[in-house]
Amino acid sequence: MKIAVIQLAYGDEETLEARTQRVADLVRAQAGHDLVVLPELWSAGGFDFRAWPERAQPADGSVVTALAGAAREIGAVLHAGSLIEKPVDEPGPEGRGMWNTSVLIGADGRAVARYRKVHRFGFGTGEPKLLEAGEDIVVVDLPAPATGLRAGLSTCYDARFPELYRAQLDRGAELFLVPAAWPAARVEAWRLLLRARAIENQCFVVACNTAGTHAGIEMGGHSAVIDPWGQVLAEAGTGEEVLSVQIDPAVVAEAREKFPVLADRRL
Ligand SMILES: NC(=O)CCC(=O)C(=O)O
């Protein structure tokens, strides 16, 4: 399976329309890959809380529609990163009506899965103040042409909560897709947590972070693809960059058979 991880950089100047066009073009440029992955909240701005209400959209709004077209054109599965989702007529349990939602799009341009971020980052500000929390664990068989692995969806801060990944493992996950807007200030934690999630669950990790500086926060980059042994197959630097990585889905079963640590779990 050939994967492209688009570590996008952005600042504060670009309009939503211009960024959407730029990102759709970047996705189109990944023709030949089976799976293309984008970062968290690239359309709304990961830490640009004030812009979220005006950039919020339904999960079938103009941003996802533009990307679905790009995925269809190149015949790839696309993890569209996440957006500030504001569905029509869904106020949510806390009355905020907005979620940090990831969308996985098939090569036919149709949405195959949606994940609403469970752990909200901000300690009383930002996400917990403005957004609803997701409540569902989402694990899905990757569709053609990215077939062969079952993927668990999570987002950024979720990486600090190993129990979420165990729950995904128990639903058959073999690969974790993790879009993020993780700041440079804590990038070593990001790098370490991703490897830990791969090793403890014997899963691939495909993690796509943000680069650049927006809303006064420098993003950490270091997107990575990690195998079930914890080997880093590719890692980005700190700027905008596309990682292109070939993975062998058979490595999951191989690692679990050669080193059957999961069989020793005591619940
Ligand atoms: N967007 C996020 O979830 C940021 C998480 C973060 O900065 C951290 O966990 O540290």
TrEMBL record:
**Record-linked Gene3D superfamilies:** Carbon-nitrogen hydrolase
Q: What InterPro entries would the database entry show?
A: C-N_Hydrolase (IPR003010), C-N_Hydrolase_sf (IPR036526)
Pfam families reported for this sequence: CN_hydrolase
Q: Keywords on this record?
A: Hydrolase
The GO terms describing molecular function are:
hydrolase activity
Q: Which domain of life is it from?
A: Bacteria
Give start and end of each CN hydrolase domain. Answer: 1-249
The family classification in the record reads:
Belongs to the carbon-nitrogen hydrolase superfamily. NIT1/NIT2 family.
The name under which this protein is listed is: Putative amidohydrolase
